[in-house]
Automatic annotation (TrEMBL):
It comes from Myripristis murdjan (pinecone soldierfish). Keywords: Nucleus, Ribosome biogenesis, rRNA processing. GO terms for cellular component: small-subunit processome. This is rRNA-processing protein UTP23 homolog. Residues 177-251 are annotated as: Disordered. It is found in: Nucleus, Nucleolus. Belongs to the UTP23/FCF1 family. UTP23 subfamily. CDD domains: PIN_Fcf1-Utp23-H (cd09866). Involved in rRNA-processing and ribosome biogenesis.
Amino acid sequence: MKIKRQKQAKKTISFYKYNFSFREPFQILIDGTFCQAALKNKIQIKEQMPKYLMGEVQLCTTNCALKELESLGKELYGAKIILQRFQVRSCKHFKSPVPASECLLSMLEDTNPHHYFVATQDHEVTAGLKKIPGVPLLYIILNTIVLDKPSQSSLDHVQAVQMGELITPAQQQSIRSLKEEQGIGQNEGERRGKKRKRKQSNPNPLSCLKKKKKGLPTPSLKKTDGEKKRSRHRRRGKHGVESAPAAPVTS
C-alpha cells in the first residue's frame, strides 16, 4: 500500500512540475489544523514530508495562522509549538489578522504564482483551493500524509493550454520579459501613432551637373578601289572536271 501511494504521489508531482513549473525546494503552506492532526497521529512533519514528496521542501506558514492558534487556547498549544518552527511568510493582514482559511487562500491569489503546496485539514480551505488551478493539496488520513490528485480546475486549465486557448504563467512571464528587452510597453501604441517628420535635405550635387554631349560617331573604314579580292582560278578539263595545276618540270 505504501509503494502504491508513493507511485501516485510521484505521478501527481510530475503533473505539477510539467504543467505548472513546480521546482524544488517545494514550498508547503501549513495551517494549525494540519499540525493538530500530525500531533494526534504522531507524524513528524519535518522528517516525513521530504521523503513522501521525494525532494527538498520548505515548510512555511503565515502570521494569521499563528494568531488563530494563539486565540484558541491551551487545547491547541502543541500544534502552535509545531507551527512556530516553520518559516513565517508575509501576508497582507499583518496589522489586522484574519482567519487562517482566508489568509491561506489570499496567498494563492488566482493562479498560485509562488507555487505553494497547501497542507490543511480545513474543509473550507480545501473547497476554495480546488477552484484555483495548480494548487497541490496535502492532508492526513489513516496516520499517513496524502497528496491529493489534481483538481478538476487544474485538469481543465491544462486542457485549455493544450488546445491553445490559454498560456501558462511561465509563458506569460517569458513574454513579459521579452517585451521589456525589446522596449515594448504601454507607450508602444502612442509611439506608433506619431508620424515622423521628414528632414529637409539638400539636393544631390551630382544631379545639378550639366549633361555631357555625346561624341560624334567615328566613320567606318571603307575599302579602297585599289584593293581587289584575290581569286583562284582553276583550269577545267575537257569534260568540265577541274584539274589540279600542273607540277613544274624539273630537268
